[in-house]
Write a structure and sequence with these properties.
This protein is about 55% helix and about 5% strand. It has a two-stranded antiparallel sheet. Strands 3-4 form a two-stranded antiparallel ribbon. The N and C termini lie far apart (about 65 Å). Bound molecules: zinc ion (2 copies). InterPro entries: Fatty_acid_hydroxylase, Sterol_Desaturase_Related.
């Protein structure tokens, strides 16, 4: 595919889309029903449908029986950990292999013209972004993901929490399932703003931001405290009536889904003339500029709070004006006594 039909490349080799990023037409005023209907399929396809399918495969084929999960034991907990690690290795690994090792589409649609493996840096363990990212993903990321899953499934098996079934509450469960990506995004926005508070940024979130040029393995490369906060949205299934299938779907949106925003390419090419849109540019700009696009734009939280960067020159100027105002505030001399 000719990526210059869709965007432009600068002198450094960084590609950017021509069209401005737009927030989803859900909570916009005045309402835009036609735009909403045109946008709606992209809410499901391909990513959320893929995560729902993964959740279903997990629940129907890859989760121990309710009887087994009534008692906490090493056997089934270790099994869940290994199956989650295998899923991450397969999915993240497949994207890494295709896009970053075999480089099947070169730098076509690649936001950053450089390759992370060419950049040896002291901020990473063993000076390697990939090795550092993988150690954090498998060392604390997937274990903490699995711990939330074990807690939820053990509660379900023992009847703790307001669990329900699709036979009892089909409308509620369908509505809840539809809302899960949005619940995840609002929760992520809140914890993300929190860990950008300077002291938390320094000790916790800077680990994730070390990957200025993110690739699939950067997705879950976080400090363990961020991992703990990141998956805590799954606790909502212990508060609202839910079903384990929805819990597993939710954990995939949070865990596996993180890879979409960090893939580093705007399209994954499938042939000479087609490709899958990743919508990763919103979060790529967060990794590039740090204080913009804390959420993904499904709900216009960044617009409401003035941190939206739509990728255009105007978006860049707005961000720079905001930074300049912030610097001026910090440097302003406080009034002296008697003034
Ligand atoms: Zn990120
Ligand atoms: Zn951040």
């Amino acid at each position: 595919m000719d990526d210059l039909r869709y965007g432009k490349r600068n002198k450094r080799g960084d590609w950017a889309p021509d069209s401005a990023l737009e927030v989803a037409p859900i909570l916009v005023f005045p309402p835009k029903p036609i735009k909403f209907l045109k946008w709606l399929p992209s809410y499901f396809l391909p990513w959320n449908v893929m995560f729902m399918l993964l959740g279903a495969v997990y629940w129907f084929f890859l989760t121990p029986s309710v009887e087994t999960m009534k008692t906490l034991s090493v056997g089934w907990i270790a099994y869940l950990l290994v199956r989650n690690m295998a899923a991450v290795l397969l999915i993240f690994g497949a994207l890494e292999l295709r896009l970053y090792i075999r480089r099947r589409q070169g730098t076509s649609f690649k936001y950053n013209g450089k390759w992370p493996s060419d950049n040896k840096s002291d901020v990473f363990m063993f000076k390697s972004q990939n090795i550092d990212n993988m150690i954090r993903t498998f060392g604390t990321g997937v274990p903490i993901w699995t711990a939330y899953e074990v807690l939820g499934l053990w509660c379900f098996a023992n009847g703790y929490g307001p669990w329900t079934t699709f036979a009892q509450n089909p409308v509620w469960l369908a509505a809840f399932g539809l809302m899960i990506p949005i619940i995840h995004e609002v929760h992520f926005y809140c914890i993300h703003r929190l860990i950008h508070v300077p002291v938390l940024y320094k000790w916790v979130h800077s680990v994730h931001h070390n990957s200025v040029n993110p690739s699939p393995w950067s997705s879950l490369s976080m400090h363990p405290i961020e991992h703990l906060l990141y998956w805590s949205d799954s606790l909502i299934h212990l508060i609202l009536p839910s079903h384990p299938l929805l819990l597993l779907y939710h954990l995939h949106i949070t865990g596996t889904g993180a890879v979409i925003g960090h893939v580093g390419f705007d399209k994954i090419e499938l042939g000479k003339e087609s490709g899958i849109d990743t919508h990763a540019y919103t979060h790529y700009l967060h990794h590039k500029h740090f204080e913009v696009n804390y959420a993904e734009g499904t709900i216009p939280l960044d617009k409401w709070f003035g941190t939206w960067h739509d990728g255009t020159k105007e978006g860049q100027e707005l961000m720079e004006a905001r930074y300049a105002a912030k610097v001026a505030r910090v440097n302003a001399t406080p009034p002296q006594p008697g003034e």
